[in-house]
Structure formats: structure tokens, C-alpha cells
Design goal:
single chain, mainly alpha, three-stranded antiparallel beta sheet, two-stranded parallel ribbon, 55% helix
Length: 511
């Protein structure tokens, strides 16, 4: 049975709906109100052509050619040439879910009715999305100003029946996939080529999925760090609400509450002076570090909630007044800064997780067997997981260098300041994966630390569920074995959100 479609109107799309479409193949429809706006705006384009007015991208060239007037009889040729000449992106193709997010966001922006596209062109884009025709969009080539011109041009090629797509598990010419789905390729009319590619939807679509995964990373970090705290018989005083109330950053308060809730009923936790006076910062400062990441993620979410319902092409048409205004909504600086911030925030989750990993593996710090091996010397245990974690955390430090402070002028200095937001997004994705992998290693070692702790008691309500979850897939390490498949399994369980799903099914919801 076909699921209820997501109705787009350019105004009310949510990040959760975006994920439903991108990852769960939920169908999409254009609202009736949006259809009326799109058609009204298209009428304005036709009027401009009839009047012979000079309008950027409609009756002129683009970029440095903005002063070159184009006659109406070659308007279609101009739009076709824009797409063909701009499809210069390189590198590995975006993932299927990323492409779906991009198409959805471009369609949603066009649905606002300020871009001048024809309704049939917009409907063709949505038909491709609903029928699983996914353009091959190389990941590299956007400057993040004038939007994501180069990669979006690869999407627009497919609408024209040119370029390549992924369809039914195969990479094939777009024309072949469109024919198999009974979709007619579009001959672009005036303004439409520019309308399809002059936007921020590569940055926003790929970045939105990165944010949603980053939120799962942060929640998973709370769970795993609580399990580590138990393996080390840590102190719970730093998580008490009285402390958070004196520095009430929202993320800090939320994380501290999470930890106490996850540890409820635990017999492993201790009080100050029971075993030691204070824990190291990687345990004691979980609310402050994880909490700061939560606050950063909340900021990025606010930026994206605006962006996914924004109109970001140029020029913009205003049918009510008849105005055609050239502006800079395509500039990706708000996103570039946000995604640099996102990368730094996600890197800190990996950074503090690596420090907790050291606490678990170092016998002088943990009181547990060295490298969590029952028979050290003959066995190395989890020794080398720390090497890998350290390498990934070090790599994250390189990736966390900001992209948004760079700018290289292009188009003969017409586009003389750009955001490099596409680079910021791709860096944040690399940091996200590395941090998930470090956290996955901590998860394995925290469970092993529980197994090898000479104290054997009751775990917390939430941490017990997490411990049982990982032990369903990865058994206790009794003697050395090949570890990388288990490291990969732990990573996939976390990055897919399976840990959080398992806790939810156990009536334990992490904030």
C-alpha cells in the first residue's frame, strides 16, 4: 500500500520529512497552492519575454556575460547550454539518500513560486524522485555561491534526458531511465535552466542528513559514555542537577539528565571519596563537552530549518508587484559557517570518546586488566583499537579546519566572494564517520570493561539495555581474534541508529 505522500509547498517542509523522503522513499506531491503560485510566476516570465525586457538569465547571459543581451528566439538554447556547460562536478557520486534530499529541496524551493519554472518541469523533477530515478551527481565542484551550480547541473541534465542516473540498481543514461518510466525529457524554456541550478540544495540536502546523523551520534555518545562510567566505577556527583543549575546551558542540562536516567538503579556507580575523590575530565565533564555539541547541533538545525524552505536562486520574480530582483540568496555563507561549526562539534564527540577509551585500556588508570585482555602478553586485547581511534581523531583535527574562511574569486571576478560551503559539508561528513567509528570502539571496550570488572552488580536501566544490545552482536573477548569485523559491526549499529532504536523499544528514550 502506497504511503501518504509528503506534500510540499515551499514553506513547511521539516527535517524529519526530508529524511522520510530521502531514506524511506516516501512519495512527494506538490500542493495545490504551490501549483497556483508556480503557474502565476511563470506567467510573469512569459510577459517579460513578450515585452522584450532585459532580465538577467532570461534575456541576458549569466555570470560575466550578464551584460550580453540574448534574443528571445534563442532563450531555450541559452538554458540548455547553461546546463551542459555547468555540469563540471567531479569525484564520487553522492549517495542515493543524498540525491533524493537534494531533489526534494530543489523542488520545494521552486514550489514557492519565485523562480519562474513551468509546472510541467517541476512535476517532471518530482516524478523522477517518486520513481527512483536518481541523477549521478559528483560530489565535488561547488563553490557554495551562485549556489551549487556545478553539481546541480548534473541533476538538471537528467531532467533534460542527458547525463547519467542510477535506476533500479544500475547506472545508465538518463534518457534510458526516463523512457523506462514513461517520463518525457524536458526541453527547458526561458529561465528554467538557471532556476534548476542556482540554489544551495547540495549543501542543504547533504548537510541536513549529516545533521540528523550527528544528532544520533550525540545521543549514542551519552549512552556509551554512561556504560564506560560504570566500567570504571565512576562518580555520579558531576551529573547532579544542582551543578547544572549554576551553569544552565541547555545542552549541558540535557546531557547530565540523560546520564543520570541511563544510570538509574546502577550498582556500579560510586560517590566522591568512595573509590577516588574525582574522575578525569573525560568522565566528569561529559555534560559540558557533550552538551556543547548538543547546543551546536541545535544551532545548525535552526539554520537548516530556514534553509530547506528558502528560495535561493537568482533573479527572483515577484508576480504581485511585477518586480524582478537580482540578489544574493544563493550565497552559502550561512550554511558554510554552520557546517564548519557542525564539523567541530562532531569532532569533539570523537575526541572525548578517544580519551575515555584510553581510560578503559590503560591499567594504571582503570584498575582493569591491561588493554582489557584476560591473558595479557599472549593476547593484546583491544590495544590496537586505541591506535586506530587516535589516527581518526588526529584526522578529524585536520578536517575541522574551517572551509568558510576561504574564498577564491571566479567568473572573471564577477563572483568575487564565495562560501566554500560544499567543502564544509564534505568535511563534516568525514568527521561524522570518524567520530562514529571512535565511539563504536568505545562501545566495544566499555562492554568488555563491564565483563572484566571484578565488581559484578546491577547495571543502570539504560546501560543494561545498551550492554545487552552490543552483546547480541559481539561476544566478550576471551582471547585474541580478528577485531575489525566487530569494529565495523559496532559502527554500523551506531550509525544506522540501531542502538537508539533498541533503547526506544525497551521504553528508554534518550533526549
Amino acid at each position: 500500500m502506497q504511503s501518504t505522500p509528503v506534500m510540499i509547498d515551499g514553506l513547511s517542509l521539516t527535517l524529519e520529512q526530508l529524511e522520510d523522503v530521502a531514506r524511506h522513499n516516501k512519495p512527494v506531491k506538490l500542493s495545490q497552492e504551490a501549483k497556483i503560485r508556480v503557474e502565476t510566476c511563470r506567467t510573469q516570465v512569459e510577459t517579460l519575454l513578450e515585452e522584450g525586457r532585459v532580465v538577467y538569465g532570461i534575456t541576458t547571459g549569466i555570470g560575466k556575460f550578464c551584460n550580453q543581451v540574448i534574443s528571445a528566439d534563442v532563450a531555450e538554447t541559452l538554458q540548455k547550454n547553461i546546463i551542459r556547460s555547468h555540469a563540471t562536478a567531479v569525484g564520487d557520486p553522492l549517495r542515493e539518500d543524498q540525491v533524493r534530499a537534494v531533489i526534494l529541496l530543489r523542488a520545494n524551493s521552486l514550489a514557492r513560486g519565485h523562480s519562474g519554472i513551468r509546472i510541467e518541469t517541476l512535476e517532471t523533477l518530482l516524478s523522477m524522485l517518486n520513481k527512483g530515478i536518481h541523477p549521478v551527481i559528483p560530489a565535488k565542484g561547488s563553490l557554495g555561491a551562485s549556489g551549487d551550480l556545478a553539481p546541480l547541473a548534473h541533476m538538471a541534465l537528467a531532467v533534460m534526458g542527458e547525463g547519467e542516473v542510477f535506476y533500479r540498481g544500475r547506472r545508465m543514461p538518463a534518457a534510458e531511465a526516463l523512457a523506462a518510466s514513461n517520463i518525457a525529457p524536458v526541453t527547458l524554456a526561458a529561465k528554467e535552466g538557471l532556476a534548476l541550478i542556482n540554489g544551495t540544495q547540495i549543501m542543504a540536502g547533504v548537510g541536513a542528513l549529516a545533521l540528523l546523523d550527528g544528532e544520533r551520534l550525540a545521543k549514542s555518545a551519552d549512552v556509551i559514555s554512561a556504560l564506560t562510567l560504570e566500567a570504571l566505577r565512576g562518580i555520579t556527583d558531576p551529573f547532579r542537577p544542582e551543578i547544572q543549575a549554576l551553569r544552565p546551558h541547555p545542552g549541558q542540562v540535557l546531557v547530565a539528565d540523560n546520564i543520570l536516567s541511563l544510570l538509574a538503579g546502577s550498582e556500579y556507580v560510586t560517590a566522591s571519596t568512595e573509590l577516588r575523590v574525582q574522575d578525569p575530565y573525560s568522565i566528569r565533564c561529559i555534560p559540558q563537552v557533550h552538551g556543547a555539541t548538543r547546543d551546536a547541533l541545535a544551532h545548525v538545525r535552526r539554520v537548516l530549518e530556514v534553509e530547506i524552505n528558502a528560495v535561493t536562486d537568482n533573479p527572483l520574480l515577484f508576480p504581485e508587484s511585477g518586480d524582478v530582483l537580482s540578489g544574493g540568496n544563493f550565497h552559502g555563507q550561512p550554511l558554510a559557517l554552520a557546517f564548519d561549526y557542525l564539523g567541530c562539534a562532531l569532532a569533539e564527540i570523537g575526541s572525548i570518546s578517544e580519551r575515555r577509551l584510553e581510560q578503559l585500556l590503560n591499567p594504571s588508570l582503570s584498575g582493569l586488566p591491561a588493554f582489557l585482555s584476560q591473558n595479557g602478553g599472549v593476547n593484546s586485547g583491544y590495544m590496537l583499537t586505541h591506535y586506530t581511534a587516535a589516527a581518526l581523531v588526529s584526522e578529524n583535527k585536520v578536517f575541522a579546519s574551517p572551509a568558510s574562511v576561504d574564498s577564491i574569486p571566479t567568473s572573471a571576478n564577477q563572483e568575487d566572494h564565495v562560501s566554500m560551503g560544499g567543502n564544509a559539508v564534505r568535511k563534516s561528513l568525514a568527521i561524522l564517520e570518524n567520530s562514529f567509528r571512535v565511539l563504536a570502539m568505545e562501545f566495544l571496550c566499555a562492554a568488555q570493561g563491564i565483563d572484566l570488572n571484578p565488581f559484578q552488580g546491577r547495571l543502570g536501566r539504560g546501560t543494561e539495555a545498551a550492554y545487552r544490545f552490543i552483546r547480541e552482536s559481539v561476544p566478550k573477548l576471551k582471547e585474541d581474534r580478528i577485531l575489525y569485523p566487530e569494529m565495523n559491526e559496532s559502527y554500523h549499529l551506531l550509525s544506522a541508529g540501531d542502538l537508539l532504536t533498541a533503547l526506544h523499544e525497551a521504553a528508554i528514550d534518550v533526549q
